[in-house]
Amino acid sequence: xxxxxxxxxxxxxxxxxxxxxxxxxxxxxxxxxxxxxxxxxxxxxxxxxxxxxxxxxxxxxxxxxxxxxxxxxxxxxxxxxxxxxxxxxxxxxxxxxxxxxxxxxxxxxxxxxxxxxxxxxxxxxxxxxxxxx
Amino acid sequence: xxxxxxxxxxxxxxxxxxxxxxxxxxxxxxxxxxxxxxxxxxxxxxxxxxxxxxxxxxxxxxxxxxxxxxxxxxxxxxxxxxxxxxxxxxxxxxxxxxxxxxxxxxxxxxxxxxxxxxxxxxxxxxxxxxxxxxxxxxxxxxxxxxxxxxxxxxxxxxxxxxxxxxxxxxxxxxxxxxxxxxxxxxxxxxxxxxxxxxxxxxxxxxxxxxxxxxxxxxxxxxxxxxxxxxxxxxxxxxxxxxxxxxxxxxxxxxxxxxxxxxxxxxxxxxxxxxxxxxxxxxxxxxxxxxxxxxxxxxxxxxxxxxxxxxxxxxxxxxxxxxxxxxxxxxxxxxxxxxxxxxxxxxxxxxxxxxxxxxxxxxxxxxxxxxxxxxxxxxxxxxxxxxxxxxxxxxxxxxx
Lengths: 133, 399
Description:
The complex is a heterodimer of chains A (about 130) and B (about 400).
Chain A: H1 2-5, H2 9-26, H3 41-65, H4 69-88, H5 103-131
Helix pairs in contact in A: 2-3, 2-5, 3-4, 4-5
Chain B: H1 6-13, H2 15-53, E1 57-61, H3 64-67, H4 70-75, E2 84-85, H5 87-94, E3 98-111, E4 118-124, E5 136-139, E6 148-151, E7 162-165, E8 168-176, E9 186-190, H6 191-203, E10 217-218, E11 220-225, H7 231-241, E12 245-249, H8 250-293, H9 295-303, H10 308-338, H11 342-349, H12 358-388, H13 392-397
Helix pairs in contact in B: 1-10, 2-8, 2-10, 2-12, 8-12, 10-12
């Protein structure tokens, strides 16, 4: 029961991290900016990350507000899988620019992988805390 | 109660105190490990660049000095667009003491299909080149023929692949070892290929500072001085013998960079030392407070028959566990921010930056952990001594 009391905390952490990822993917952690206005592959990776981050934020908000432990545990498991998708998007599922010194590879990919890895850890912790009632 | 489990129970029952100690030691480890890796990476980058350069003297057009600094040319691969007559190559070779002279032609930025940014294309003469060929790390064949290119390690193609530049398909014959500079994103080809690429660009209506009609131009001449000759004298001779060109000793450029590198190393060392001293003072204050807070707890343990030695070891184990946890956390945090962002750090520093090999990183991490645990144990030694000597009677009476 005591552990369940804290099970909303990881959801709040996920909500914050997901918002940083969503805002970041459109601004300071975003893909390469093209001089001629065309899009590269990394642009679509950025779009996908934005969408996934918004889904994570919504799930985090629902998990933080929902009182039922079983529902919360289910949401955490869903977030765990979504976080894996977020980690795999840049570079694995959607290719990035070819040059290793480009912004999508130097800024977007590592920062998104770190953010989604942290969300994965938080979701795992949340699932464990919700499980033990 | 199991006395062996006591230090761990204490840590779990006082989460606030434990977290504070872990955070403090994490800060120690983060500063030492992070600072060490950054300094080691810069040193390795400079060393790699020094050996990669291979030339004693670089001859560039006099106009190049105003367009791009030599330091930038070396450190960031900012080759720029400057040209001089190819006659200077013949004149350089005529100077006594010149063993080899390799020309390079810089073409600032061609757009390749691999990247949304433009890439540097550098034309070389494979017959005389001694700068690029020794650093081909991955190769599918030796010679660099027409429409063949050798790419820097950051270009996302490998040996055997095809790179499309201005609708021209170039065959990648080799990939270079990393330098930790902008040269890692350059593409090298022979002069004929360069001419073909220029023609393809012109056909698309894209102009450069040179045209495909300009023949015999070079941007830089890399010179190797024969053994036994004074590089300074050869440098002056080249300077006097060539026209509208400047000869610069690479050693003096490297020394300049070494100077700024040692300045950065000194700053990092002082900052790390300041953080360590500050953290040691905070740890000592924290332990002084813990002594007062835990006097009664230790007096009771003494009354229950616990020896002084055992009480001292309880404090020591608690500190060692906190320091180790903090050390691991600090090393992990530093790793998360350093290794995935290597390229970003390299471009921000504007200095050669090459991450050390894994065994060296692991060794540094282990040394940091050992240092953090030793530091924590030293800071707690006084508290352990004070608490193990508490007089139960006086403490429990409230005096």
